Amino acid sequence: MKIxxxxxKYTPDLGGLAISTDRLARLLSSAGxxxxxxxxxxxxxxxxxRTLRSNGLxxxxxxxxxxxxxxxxxxxxxxxxxxxxxxxxxxHAYFLAPAGFVATYAGKYLxxxxxxxxxxxxxxxxxxxxxxxxxxxxxxxNAGAVTTNASELARKAKAxxxxxxxxxxxxMDAGHxxxxxxxxxxxxxxxxxxxxxxxxxxxxxxxKKGMTALLSACAQAxxxxxxxxxxxxxxxxxxxxxxxxEFRKAHRQLPMTATGQLPHRDLPAYYSLMDVFVHxxxxxxxxxxxxEAMACGKAVVATAAGGVKDVLEDGKNGxxxxxxxxxxxxxxxxxxxxxxxxxxxLGKNARESILNKFTLERELEANLEVYRKLGLQPAKExxxxxxxxxxxxxxxxxxxxxx
Length: 403
Known about the structure:
Blueprint: E1 2-7, H1 16-30, E2 34-46, E3 49-54, E4 57-63, H2 68-85, E5 90-94, H3 99-110, E6 114-118, H4 121-124, H5 130-142, E7 145-148, H6 151-160, E8 166-167, H7 184-190, E9 197-202, H8 211-222, E10 227-232, H9 239-250, E11 256-258, H10 267-271, E12 276-279, H11 288-295, E13 299-303, H12 308-311, E14 319-321, H13 326-337, H14 340-357, H15 360-373, H16 391-401
Parallel strand pairs: 1-2, 1-5, 2-4, 5-6, 6-7, 7-8, 9-10, 9-12, 10-11, 12-13, 13-14
Antiparallel strand pairs: 3-4
């Protein structure tokens, strides 16, 4: 089966959308399907295209225009031209708008199935932007099938247009993201001392990710015990960066660092340094960082936002706190830092949850099942013998050796 996968972001772009698009592409490739990725980029001049092959994938990036409509025209025409050259069996878009609009329109024009996957902001924020609303509604109403990774996002989508929406949670490579000994050399390079508790955050720190609550909670926790704030990622440029720097100036006694963007494969070593992983988002889909931390056996404190509620059972495999509640975030984080046995228990249960419910196999098979509902006949998982794309097999091995 030949699949065109459309996404506004793709590696090495920042964010969960890029990570999830790459993960799905590699899973589909591992099952024996030919995958073509189409994604705009600011790294190329407008309308210029560049195609490369990586581990069985064809990745086409094309230069975005300042005007969104010009970019969408290029995107649509590129997909149509490639279909005429080598026909696709399905157009699969990650994000309701703009990718979903392009895939749905092109699919109807070409008379081939389209599938749209809702991921987060495309249903939580974009519908309230008049310039994006019509594109999202067109995709929601006309796509052959719609999926999402969080039950709350499905409910929100149905409030706009009531149709069947398939729930496909994110999967995690538990063979790569797994418990490991603290990387002392890495800790020393970051200035993390052995006698200090590490509060970790992974991703692009910004207000939507709960930056204000996180910083406030760390400042309050530092009054009770020595803590280090480890931000694995970047602080978003602009107003968020300004607020972060103002906080640092006002709390010079609080040790912290932001690592900048890192290769995704390097993250397990950074998770090994964390005593508690904190994810205080105001809104969310199903955050990859949360699943990664859980797979690494970390005790997690997270806000009850979006898909987090599908993953965490409060007090069993993590701790849930109210959105934008710095005091509660402080209290629950300190409670875990002061009780290592509770951290260990939550971390163990967190990893078990990943191994049992949020596997790569499940994510792959759920997507293949939706393709079947569209009348397609995808091959079963495991038919591809290419060793560079065996994420599913690595995950199985990880479950056997790391329970």
